[in-house]
Amino acid sequence: MSPNTTNINANAAHHRVTGSTPQSRTSSRPATPLNTSKINGQARIPLEADDFSDFGDDWDDDMDDRRSALHRPADGRSKQPLLRRDDDEERGRSGFGSPDPPERPPLFTRRSTMRSRSPDTQAKLATRKKYTYAAFFLGLSLVSFVIQTETAVYIQHELGWNKAYCMLYLTHGSWSLLWPFQLLILRLQKWKMPWHTFWRRHVYLVRTTAQMVELQELTIPRGQRSPIPYMLRMTAFVTCALTVAGGSWYVAVNLTSPSDLTAIYNCSAFFAYAFSVPILKEKLRLDKSFAVLVAIIGVLIVAYGDSSQTKHGGKSGGSVGGGKEKEPSNQVAGNLIIGVGSVLYGFYEVLYKRLACPPEGTSPGRGMIFANTFGSLIGSFTLLVLWVPLPFLHVLGWEIFELPRGETAWLLLISVLANATFSGSFLVLISLTSPVLSSVAALLTIFLVAIVDWLWTGVPLAPAAVVGGLLIIVAFLLLSYSTYREMSEERRKKQVDISESDSDKDDD
């Protein structure tokens, strides 16, 4: 017998006595923590569509998916001891001589079933999920806007508290509550999770989404710098555009008629589409243009088709109509000011979509969380910086600073919180869909306010309000169908590009 054979037999006898199993060097290697891809010579971290979006199973699935396939247990169990305890009755290989052989791992798990879906099915599910989120926030924005409009009309016309810039400051400043309220809801959903784990995951989600916004890509290069400077610059830029656009409403409301104010202000839907073509690279489509035109015609019919004043609220708070009719002091100047405001509001919506929204392909949950976070940044910038004009307006006598009291204070609180809810929902809606669809959706509030007045006061709807409202609804449905069809065409185009690239690789 050779010396090598003697050593092998001795080792085998040693393992039978000790009950241990020789370990492979390959299995002792640490699992690869993160899959990366290289783009332009740079390692990039892939962030999948549902990456950490809902703080639940998606997080665990994602972290588990990033483990190497060689080290991922097939039966879904990990961190099991390799050796049995000393008090085990049976040792060695199980299954030989034992009456009950070990169960085989299941062939299909939930994760493997999810991965077996075709790209077309996954894209359809993602689109359906996105539109479900958008429908919910559309309903929430419409209800909150009606509440804001009715309370603002009562405060300004019945209670006589008409402080334009102060209301604008309080309204935009209330947006700072969006992120804390969102964090509270997320925490209630995951209240069993330790706070430090929950906070770490939330910060990671917001930070990586901000990096995606800055790069406008779904993959982040390793060593990417902090997104904080970019977000601070964009917050200041977008907030200033929003403040000027919203302030024009308050300036023009005392200069022009409610009908002109309503008609010109809501033309922002047209300007949102006009700016989307060069800035967002949207195609100029005939069906979209026709839907926007129908919506504007509906607004004009509501504004000018009835002799009574049109009650309508501004997206930045405030209201028009509902009080005693008075002659406009300078209708031409008021129309010019609100015209500039309409252009700026359309520009603000497109600017927010371009500079502060994650790229296409981001999961709806991630987009929703980041939209409310950015809304809080706008509110915080307003509270910390835009208080400066208040003392100057007070000293010059243009607007005496006076805090509301009693009933006015409570109703103003309701109006401000309703606007914060509307604005947060509106930001989410723009992030999930487009500025054009969101703008036309906001026009539905004109018809809803008229219906609420009819139910509240008993005054029947005017024929012009009914016809104009129906035209706005038709325009919104046409635009929704056009947007959905455009997304389907883009999805099919991407699938063709992917299949062609795969066939080229096979030919090579």
From TrEMBL:
Entry GO MF terms: enzyme regulator activity
GO cellular component: endoplasmic reticulum membrane
Bias kind Basic and acidic residues: ranges: 64-93
Record's compositionally biased regions (Acidic residues): 48-63
Region entry Disordered, spans: 1-123, 308-329
GO biological process, one term: intracellular calcium ion homeostasis
TM helices/strands, residue ranges: 131-155, 167-186, 230-251, 263-280, 289-305, 332-348, 369-390, 410-429, 436-456, 462-484
Compositional bias (Polar residues): 18-40
Keywords, comma-separated and alphabetical: Membrane, Transmembrane, Transmembrane helix
Keyword Nucleotide-binding: no
Pfam families: CSG2 (PF16965)
Top-rank taxon, per record: Eukaryota
Ranges annotated as biased composition (Low complexity): 1-12
Protein name: Putative vacuolar membrane protein
The organism of origin for this protein: Lachnellula suecica
Name of the gene: YML018C_1
